[in-house]
Amino acid sequence: MEAIASPTTLKPVIDALPDSVYENPTWKGLAYFGRDVVMYAGLLVALVLIGNVIAVLALEVVMALVVSALFVVGHDAAHGALFSSKRMNSIVAHLAFLPSFHVYEGWILGHNRVHHPYTVRQGYDFVWHPTTPEQFAALGHWRRAVHRFEWSWAGAGAYYIHQVWWKKMMVGPNPARWVKAIRRDRWIVTAFIAGMLSVFTLVGMAAGDSPAGILWLDLRTVVLPFIGFSCFIGTMVHVHHIAPDIRWWKKAEWNKFKAQMEGTTVLRAPKGFNFFFHWIMVHVPHHVDMRIPMYHLEEAAAAIESAYPGTVIDKPLRFRDFVANSRACKLYDFDDGRWLTYGGGRRHLAANAPVTATGPLDDTAHR
């Protein structure tokens, strides 16, 4: 029996979704936002009152989770999914993004208008975009070292801060029609960071803290929560789109069905995880239709998997799988559609293009 060809668009997938997955009452979105704001404010108070290093480190883990929760609420609102009101979505997204230092209009451009429409497409989707063996060989020693760290399991947060937050949102160039709005929101974020540092510096001075004590207060209330959040979100984005069974595509081979149905995952999180991460790991339905509110993603995933059994990557969320993926997926061969380790990339060059690279791959590469 001849196999039925997969669609190339998302329309038949969206048609399989029930109307109930689009319901987004205002009270529900505000409830999630309000709950996360209260936790964030409470943790800031705790971090002011508690200076013990061990206790602070424990609080920082919780704070990173809460900042992540607010970020996911902002992410949902930025997609226009959390509320029916466009204005309400904008206001909540702007506010919810502040603790993670995210530039609203910069996020809209990079995430909504680039990452989502062109998921896992070569030369377009910039989030964890793979490097080819030829490109890696052409890098200098420092940039290779940076790549090795940022593409390791321990470097996911550094990758997110460097490649996504700093280069794309805070300082990167933008199309002319976006420049004014993004510049405005960059100033909003910069003012928030400066304002937070000023407030807690004044709090420390009022309490009679030493300069070192004031610096420690600023670090634990403003800087460390952002670093912790970046480690969480960098890891989450990696497992969404990087794995040996997730293929990236050349422009001529890419289509929306393959990108959104096969280019991301449904990862079943442990109990309690979604209290902070708001079902963000149920990622396939979110890529199928950004209008689905976060709290309906599981229902949407069930409808999609019923209509297209065996198509979606659906597995448990496990840290060891993230580590294994980060070790296996270092470079990418777009011709063969497969991930390579650094050692595999070296062998690829030796077999296919021994003289085209401007520099050899490091012999110390992970094999």
Give a quick summary of the entry.
By secondary structure, the protein is mostly helical.
* E-strand count: 4
What coarse outline follows from CA principal-axis ratios? globular
Q: How far is the N terminus from the C terminus?
A: 41 Å
| Class by SSE composition | mainly alpha
The structural domain count equals: 1
Helix and strand pattern: HHHHHHHHHHHEHHHEHEEH
Task: State Rg.
Answer: 22 Å
Please indicate the percent range of residues in DSSP E strands (runs of 2 or more). under 5%
Q: What spatial order of strands do you see in the largest sheet?
A: 1-2
Helix % is: 55-70%
Furnish the topology, listing elements before pairings:
Elements: H1 11-15, H2 26-49, H3 53-78, H4 86-97, H5 104-115, H6 133-137, H7 141-150, H8 156-170, H9 176-206, H10 211-241, H11 256-262, E1 265-268, H12 274-277, H13 283-288, H14 297-307, E2 313-316, H15 319-328, E3 331-333, E4 338-340, H16 342-352
Parallel strand pairs: 1-2
Antiparallel strand pairs: 3-4
Helix pairs in contact: 2-3, 3-4, 3-10, 5-9, 8-10, 9-10
